[in-house]
Write a structure and sequence with these properties.
Blueprint lengths: L2 E5 L9 H9 L3 E7 L16 H19 L6 E4 L2 H11 L4 E5 L4 H16 L3 E5 L21 H11 L40 H14 L6 H4 L13 H4 L6 H14 L4 H23 L20 H9 L5 H13 L4 H14 L4 H11 L5 H12 L13 H8 L4 H6 L8 H4 L7 H6 L16 H7 L1
Helix pairs in contact: 3-4, 9-10, 10-15, 12-13, 14-15
Bound molecules: flavin-adenine dinucleotide (FAD).
Flavin-adenine dinucleotide binds next to helix 8, helix 10, helix 13 and helix 15.
InterPro entries: Cry_DASH (IPR014133), Crypto/Photolyase_FAD-like_sf (IPR036134), Crypto/Photolyase_N_sf (IPR036155), Cryptochr/Photolyase_FAD-bd (IPR005101), Cryptochrome/DNA_photolyase_1 (IPR002081), DNA_photolyase_N (IPR006050), Rossmann-like_a/b/a_fold (IPR014729)
Function: May have a photoreceptor function.
Keywords: Chromophore, FAD, Flavoprotein
């Protein structure tokens, strides 16, 4: 018996059902990663579908998977090309009996699956799918997917009442890998690392981060109070970076939370991390329920909204040159690091769609290109919500950006970190830099329109509401 294990967004060896089950059936497991060139295509807006930082993180994750497979006696075959061509050819060459793969939900992936499955069928080879991306297993949901509640809280209540998180699968102890198979390599990719602000891909780094966040720094016990922060590494877990490629399993995180609750403390914060992972699950199930509607202009609601398609305005937002410090600092952070806090994402997304009224799908596409933790369901799902075309209209909120800035960056430390031109402005004035008089601009060594952009909208609408 020979099994080809096609890795996609599941780049780990721990809690990997397909890997574990394959190893139980045979020692002849051939792990494979196919680097599909279409993920790098240039989008009509003039930027690539997968940006440099995400590419770098992905490559690191693949290299690390190879290392971890080697440590259990196996290896990772890497090929560059179209999966529907590579997989059937390789399967035939290696005399494969069955192909194992993770089940995905969105159309690019599922259409690919159909093509691969058809081509394999012609060779008499079966393809077996494993659901392994969420905390709660699809088959354990207390409702059919068509009946998934449109309101998150209803989903959460039902799931928490009647469903258990399955246990994790152990790492296989030993596999073998034939010497005569050409393993292949990733293309060279030399992108200068963004020094202190960079995150490294791979299962080892993911597990290291959990060890640090939970056990060394003991940060889980205060997560609920810190999670809305924006500056630094430790206000939130940063697990999304590794969850996106499957370098860490949500069930493993869950087990570690339970262990932490037993050994250290159990409180609202420890629960809240699981609560947030449930949002992640929810968006995946929403994508399964609604299919391609999550990408449509009118969204899941089919609601007609007139969106502006002004490239010039969009470019200012994208480059962090709106003249609104909270927005610009977040967009600069995204550009430099490929990450942005949840608080930041809510604000920049709301600003784009509610204040600038730009097509929400443009914003979602930029996030797709830039975010290292890009997850098709979480990204498009969250954007739908912010744009007010998601499935729960009560989530359709407007953010007063100035109020948000005062609440979440009271001392202006975050904006000053990413926008050094604002360094000398006192905290109480830094978020409304657009209102500085000529004299103040001289005093604080910032000239609007030269050192920092003039605001692209009149920010007084927020100050008035704010008082
Ligand atoms: C417009 C917009 C786009 C987003 N795009 C993505 C995306 O592409 N990929 C992504 O993983 N998250 C996305 N999010 C959700 C959220 O911002 C990130 O998951 C979070 O900031 C990641 O940081 P963390 O791991 O430190 O989060 P923590 O606060 O430590 O949360 C733990 C985990 O819970 C999950 N989670 C938390 N908040 C959300 C949420 N709102 N939706 C779904 N899952 C959540 C994530 O898996 C996260 O890693 C988006 C949010 C918005 C508003």
């Amino acid at each position: 018996m020979k099994i080809l294990l096609w890795f996609r967004n599941d780049l780990r060896v721990h809690d990997h059902e397909a890997l574990f089950k394959a190893s139980q059936q045979t020692s002849q497991v051939f792990p494979l990663y196919v680097l599909d060139p279409s993920i790098f295509q240039e989008l009509a807006m003039g930027f690539p579908k997968t940006g440099n930082l995400r590419t770098q993180f992905l490559f690191e994750s693949i290299e690390n998977l190879r290392k971890n497979l080697q440590s259990i006696g196996s290896n990772l075959i890497v090929r560059v090309g179209y999966p529907e061509e590579i997989i059937p050819t390789l399967a035939k060459e290696l005399l494969i009996d069955e192909v194992f793969v993770s089940e995905e939900v969105t159309s690019e992936e599922t259409e690919m699956d159909t093509l691969v499955e058809l081509a394999l069928k012609l060779e008499g080879i079966k393809m077996k799918f494993f659901w392994q991306s969420t905390l709660y297993h699809l088959d354990d949901l207390p409702m059919e997917i068509e009946n998934l509640p449109n309101i998150f809280t209803q989903f959460r209540n039902q799931v928490e009442k009647s469903t258990k998180v399955r246990s994790t699968f152990p790492i296989p102890q030993h596999l073998s890998f034939p010497e005569n198979v050409e393993v292949g390599a990733l293309p060279k990719f030399d992108f200068p690392r963004a020094s202190q602000h960079s995150y490294k891909g791979g299962e080892d780094e993911a597990l290291k981060r959990l060890e640090e966040y939970f056990w060394q720094k003991d940060l889980l016990k205060t997560y609920k109070e810190t999670r809305n922060g924006m500056l630094g590494l430790d206000y939130s877990s940063k697990f999304s970076l590794w969850l996106a490629n499957g370098c860490i399993s949500p069930r493993y995180i869950y087990e570690q939370v339970k262990k932490y609750e037993l050994e250290r403390t159990q409180n609202e914060s420890t629960y809240w991390l699981i609560f947030e992972l449930l949002w992640r699950d929810y968006f995946r199930f929403v994508a399964l329920k609604y299919g391609n509607k999550i990408f449509f202009e009118k969204g899941i609601q089919g609601k007609a909204v007139v969106w502006k398609k002004d490239k010039r305005v969009f470019e200012k937002w994208r480059m962090g040159e709106t003249g609104i410090p909270l927005i610009d600092a977040n967009m600069k952070e995204l550009l430099a690091t490929g990450f942005m806090s949840n608080r930041g994402r809510q604000n920049v997304a709301s600003f784009l769609v509610k204040d600038l009224q730009i097509d929400w799908r443009w914003g979602a596409s930029w996030f797709e290109s830039q975010l290292i933790d890009y997850d098709v369901c979480s990204n498009w799902g969250n954007w739908l919500y912010v744009a007010g075309v998601g499935n729960d209209p009560r989530e359709n909120r407007y953010f007063n950006i100035l109020k948000q800035a005062h609440n979440y960056d009271e001392k202006g430390e975050y904006v000053k970190f990413w926008l050094p031109a604002l360094a000398n402005i006192p905290a109480e004035k830094v978020h409304s830099v657009a209102l500085l008089t000529q004299e103040e601009q001289r005093k604080f060594s910032v000239q609007l329109g030269i050192d920092y952009p003039k605001a692209m909208i009149d920010i007084r609408k927020w100050s008035i509401k704010n008082k």
